[in-house]
Amino acid sequence: MEELFGQFSLGLFIVQTILFVGLILLLKKFAWKPILDAVNEREDGIKNALLSAENARKEMQNLQADNERTLQQARAERDAMLKEARDIKEKMIAESKNEAQAAGQKMIEQAKAAIESEKNAAMAELKARVSSLSLDIAEKLLQDELSNKEAQTKLVEKMLGDAKLN
C-alpha cells in the first residue's frame, strides 16, 4: 500500500493544490457561469412556457364558457322563433277556419236566396197556370151555359141586377 501512495511531498501537494484551485477558478469563470446561465435561461423558459400554458388554458376555458353562452343564446333564439312560428301557424289556421266558415255561411245564404227566388218563380208560374186553367174552364162553362137562349137571357138579367146594386 505504501507503494500506491508513495512518499508525501509537500511541494508537490502545494503545486497540486494551486493547480486544483486554479482549475476551479478557471472552471468557475469560463464553464460554471455559462452552465448556470444556461440552466437559469432554461428554467426561465420553462417558467414562461408553464405560464403561457396556464394562460392558454384559462383563455380556452373562457372561450368554452363564451361558446356555451352563445350556444344557449342560440337555443333560446331558436326556441323563441319556433314558438313564434307555431303561434303564426295557429293564427293562420284559425283565420283560415274563420274565412272558410264565413264563406260557407255566405254560400248557404246565397243558396237560400236562390231557393227562395226559385220557389217564388215556381209559385208565380203555378198561379199563372191555375188562372189560365180557371179561365179556360170558365170559358167552357160559359159557352155551355150561353149556348141556350133562355139561359143567356137569365144570365144577362142577373148581371144587370148585380151591376145596379153595386
TrEMBL record:
<feature type="transmembrane region" description="Helical">
    <location>
        <begin position="6"/>
        <end position="27"/>
    </location>
</feature>
<keyword id="KW-0066">ATP synthesis</keyword>
<dbReference type="InterPro" id="IPR005864">
    <property type="entry name" value="ATP_synth_F0_bsu_bac"/>
</dbReference>
<dbReference type="GO" id="GO:0005886">
    <property type="term" value="C:plasma membrane"/>
</dbReference>
<dbReference type="InterPro" id="IPR002146">
    <property type="entry name" value="ATP_synth_b/b'su_bac/chlpt"/>
</dbReference>
<comment type="subunit">
    <text>F-type ATPases have 2 components, F(1) - the catalytic core - and F(0) - the membrane proton channel. F(1) has five subunits: alpha(3), beta(3), gamma(1), delta(1), epsilon(1). F(0) has four main subunits: a(1), b(2) and c(10-14). The alpha and beta chains form an alternating ring which encloses part of the gamma chain. F(1) is attached to F(0) by a central stalk formed by the gamma and epsilon chains, while a peripheral stalk is formed by the delta and b chains.</text>
</comment>
<dbReference type="GO" id="GO:0012505">
    <property type="term" value="C:endomembrane system"/>
</dbReference>
<comment type="similarity">
    <text>Belongs to the ATPase B chain family.</text>
</comment>
<dbReference type="InterPro" id="IPR050059">
    <property type="entry name" value="ATP_synthase_B_chain"/>
</dbReference>
<keyword id="KW-0812">Transmembrane</keyword>
<keyword id="KW-1133">Transmembrane helix</keyword>
<keyword id="KW-0138">CF(0)</keyword>
<keyword id="KW-0175">Coiled coil</keyword>
<dbReference type="GO" id="GO:0046933">
    <property type="term" value="F:proton-transporting ATP synthase activity, rotational mechanism"/>
</dbReference>
<keyword id="KW-1003">Cell membrane</keyword>
<dbReference type="Pfam" id="PF00430">
    <property type="entry name" value="ATP-synt_B"/>
</dbReference>
<keyword id="KW-0375">Hydrogen ion transport</keyword>
<feature type="coiled-coil region">
    <location>
        <begin position="46"/>
        <end position="91"/>
    </location>
</feature>
<protein>
    <recommendedName>
        <fullName>ATP synthase subunit b</fullName>
    </recommendedName>
</protein>
<dbReference type="GO" id="GO:0046961">
    <property type="term" value="F:proton-transporting ATPase activity, rotational mechanism"/>
</dbReference>
<comment type="function">
    <text>Component of the F(0) channel, it forms part of the peripheral stalk, linking F(1) to F(0). The b'-subunit is a diverged and duplicated form of b found in plants and photosynthetic bacteria.</text>
</comment>
<dbReference type="GO" id="GO:0045259">
    <property type="term" value="C:proton-transporting ATP synthase complex"/>
</dbReference>
<keyword id="KW-0813">Transport</keyword>
<keyword id="KW-0472">Membrane</keyword>
<comment type="subunit">
    <text>F-type ATPases have 2 components, F(1) - the catalytic core - and F(0) - the membrane proton channel. F(1) has five subunits: alpha(3), beta(3), gamma(1), delta(1), epsilon(1). F(0) has three main subunits: a(1), b(2) and c(10-14). The alpha and beta chains form an alternating ring which encloses part of the gamma chain. F(1) is attached to F(0) by a central stalk formed by the gamma and epsilon chains, while a peripheral stalk is formed by the delta and b chains.</text>
</comment>
<keyword id="KW-0406">Ion transport</keyword>
<comment type="function">
    <text>F(1)F(0) ATP synthase produces ATP from ADP in the presence of a proton or sodium gradient. F-type ATPases consist of two structural domains, F(1) containing the extramembraneous catalytic core and F(0) containing the membrane proton channel, linked together by a central stalk and a peripheral stalk. During catalysis, ATP synthesis in the catalytic domain of F(1) is coupled via a rotary mechanism of the central stalk subunits to proton translocation.</text>
</comment>
<dbReference type="InterPro" id="IPR028987">
    <property type="entry name" value="ATP_synth_B-like_membr_sf"/>
</dbReference>
